[in-house]
Design brief:
mainly beta, about 45% strand
């Protein structure tokens, strides 16, 4: 079942690449891990979306400002060849990104509060329940 949601996410990401972004928005969500591969990603409890930059930051909030922050930032960075495409509408935020050579898909459903983060190759995926 998770494989199907990853494939659906990749298809959604392809749609993202051809869509136009809505007005600028900065959104911070509190999140709770629901399921997926267990690793440091299970500790993610905050997600920031910035549709203008564009940027997505999945992070462990209590580590921010410390000497060892735990977070995954997705943004355009020519030096590292990282890239991001982000589309936001009233019901969903859809992201297709490449970070450190790995393609990922992130989708946030504003109605259900579910956030899915998956590697596009299907190797890893995570689901969170989020709210403002």
């Amino acid at each position: 079942m998770m494989r199907i949601s990853v494939i659906a996410g990749v298809i959604g990401a392809l749609v993202v690449l051809g869509a136009r972004a809505a007005s600028a928005e900065k959104l911070t969500l509190a999140c709770t891990f629901e399921n997926g591969d267990l690793d440091r990603e299970r500790d993610v409890n905050q997600v920031l979306f910035d549709t203008e930059r564009p940027l997505v930051d999945l992070r462990v909030a209590q580590t921010m400002g410390t000497d060892n922050p735990v977070n995954w930032i997705f943004q355009n960075d020519a030096a590292s060849k990282d890239s991001i495409q982000l589309v936001s509408d009233r019901s969903r935020i859809s992201v297709a990104a490449i970070r450190a050579g790995h393609a990922v898909v992130i989708s946030f459903d504003r109605v259900t509060g579910l956030l899915n983060w998956a590697h596009a190759d299907g190797s890893r995926s995570f689901r969170y329940s989020c709210h403002r």
